[in-house]
Amino acid sequence: MFTPGDAARTTHWHPPYLLYLGNAIDDLAIKTARGLAHWRPESCVGQYRGPDCVPTLGLRDMDWNQAKAEGADTMVIGTANAGGVMGPQIVADAIAALDAGLNVVAGLHQKLHDNPGIVAAAQRNGRALFDARTPMGGIAVGNGRRRSGRRLLTVGTDCSVGKMYTTLAIERSLRERGCKADFRATGQTGIFIAGAGIPVDAVVADFISGAAETISPARLDGGWDLIEGQGSLFHPSYAGVSLGLLHGAQPDALVLCHEPGRQHMRGLPGYALPELARCLEANLEAARLTNPDVKAIGVALNTSGLPADQAQATCREVADLLGLPCQDPVTMGVEAIVDHLLSCFAN
Amino acid sequence: MFTPGDAARTTHWHPPYLLYLGNAIDDLAIKTARGLAHWRPESCVGQYRGPDCVPTLGLRDMDWNQAKAEGADTMVIGTANAGGVMGPQIVADAIAALDAGLNVVAGLHQKLHDNPGIVAAAQRNGRALFDARTPMGGIAVGNGRRRSGRRLLTVGTDCSVGKMYTTLAIERSLRERGCKADFRATGQTGIFIAGAGIPVDAVVADFISGAAETISPARLDGGWDLIEGQGSLFHPSYAGVSLGLLHGAQPDALVLCHEPGRQHMRGLPGYALPELARCLEANLEAARLTNPDVKAIGVALNTSGLPADQAQATCREVADLLGLPCQDPVTMGVEAIVDHLLSCFAN
């Protein structure tokens, strides 16, 4: 029997989770853990905070033995730091978690599997290690063949404008309406949330579109694959990833994501953000290569930098400009966007 | 002192070369060796052909000891086969070459460095091994900052339409005219010919544009970096590589490469080739992100599938259509294209 979830399951660890915050110094450092706690609260039994940890997720504090006793299966190292380094404290804590009987998953650049002490602890306890940033092997080169099923991809004017959040919000809305829908993760945090996926920015360049094809295989159940976008066609550092993902995703529907007021492309002060209409048209034009029938179905704005009344006004302006529903998924939800999606693909 | 050649020298082996053809069954299997023999004949002392080898490069046949006696420094495994596999005969011959005192370089998917017997032979003989398909470490993410120097990039309607050949022909023409010009290799054969370069299709996806920036660093000597293009913005499997390369190359000049009469995109029977004008405009539009002043300066056609009179007529038609000089670099040279390049960038 066809199970799209399994076909896309390229990594696999299991809830319930203990979220490891270590000695994080600020909220940014626990962004990944926060995403998991927000989108999969039922999967998170608690948090582990080191003695110098500043932020909190508001979950119950517990150590490894308590987490194990509460039924936790896996400790998620959901912290980020400069360079993705796995410092000595993280190593020691990972070993302690393994010794307490937990599996461990991490998304740092430095790999659990490259640390002999961690590998030895996993072996002596019969526990599993997962490096979420290591792409699976055996991804094929993209073939561009039209495949069945419906796919939505979020695209952006820039990096970090809310593509993952928007995609997950659409999954939740579709599921609440009784539609089959599966979030397909392409980045670290998304992979933690989905428990599966491929970090497309970490695959070998020749395999970007192949990776997108792999995580959203043909489906015959009438449901939607909702594919997390990455980067932007207009980001000079990462546009190749965005284009390969766009071609491989073969999307039927695009949602454009944007943060009003951003002064320049992320990390590149010399580069202005593209105009919304131009950015959307460039994405549609490129997407037509593998799906000539692609449609734009909505715009998601991150208005966190605007006063509430201005946020509403900005959404109305953008909706008028592009002729599409426009909402901030965090403060306004995505119902108008999902309404339009379903009306565009009613048959 | 600034030496652009050194800055881009990411791998380094040295002529003179013995070209290893092994037991190649046809001309396609020795395409890489043929490229090297064609573009760097002064660097090739001879060829080694196994007992079952069918094709020849027309070089003198010799074994490893003869090659060493004739001054060869390095054996180049310039064969290709399905899957890039390094079979037992290649392994045995690589070891024999090392034992005869040659260094060995190969561009197969399977690596010399992953074969314990080859590594041991290199160690006991104090010889070096180079895997041309392994990207250097330490490539940074592309930063998109405008850099000095002039750069030309070949772009294509498809894969394998003559981008490398065209780029090398332009290098030769510019050098014959007394201009400083350096071919910058981005693929396996080009890297063999240049003795340096980065296989951009083999880098991690986030680093495509960074790799292009690395191989064509800022230069202040008034010379040209001539960057070998890869793939096509219109190839569903590889367009991400092409876009990242286009952004990172920051080209001042584009040359469009095309093979008239090709029935579909390489490897993808369902995909027609893009129209020339549309393909060129899409490349210019994308290139403007990192260099708003980019210009198209010529078209290179591979007319090997056409009768000679039709080839000339086709070039005239394309020249009229696009308003650019159009030549087949193999049969007509690239002088009209280089004339136009120099007139466009006279100051």
Overview of this protein structure:
The structure is a homodimer of 347-residue chains. The first copy, chain A, is of the alpha/beta class and 347 residues long. Helices cover 35% and strands 15% of the residues of chain A. In chain A, the strands form 2 sheets. Chain A has a 6-stranded parallel beta sheet, sandwiched between helices. The two termini of chain A are 24 Å apart. The A-B interface holds A 141-146, 200-210, 233-234, 236-245, 247-248, 268, 270-271, 282, 285-286, 289-290 and B 141-146, 200-210, 233-234, 236-245, 247-248, 268, 270-271, 282, 285-286, 289-290.
Features:
homodimer; 347 residues; alpha/beta; Rossmann fold; six-stranded parallel β-sheet; five-stranded parallel β-sheet; 13 helices; 35% helix; globular; DgcN-like_N (chains A, B); DgcN-like (chains A, B); Putative NAD-dependent epimerase/dehydratase family protein (chains A, B); DgcN-like_C (chains A, B)
Instruction: Give the total of domains of chain A.
Output: 2
Instruction: Write down how many β-strands of chain A occur, each being a DSSP E stretch of 2 or more residues.
Output: 11
- Describe the oligomeric state of these chains in a short phrase: homodimer
Helix content range of chain A: 25-40%
Domain D-glutamate N-acetyltransferase-like N-terminal (chains A, B): 64-135
Protein name (chains A, B): Putative NAD-dependent epimerase/dehydratase family protein
Domain D-glutamate N-acetyltransferase-like C-terminal (chains A, B): 141-338
Pfam families (chains A, B): DUF1611, DUF1611_N
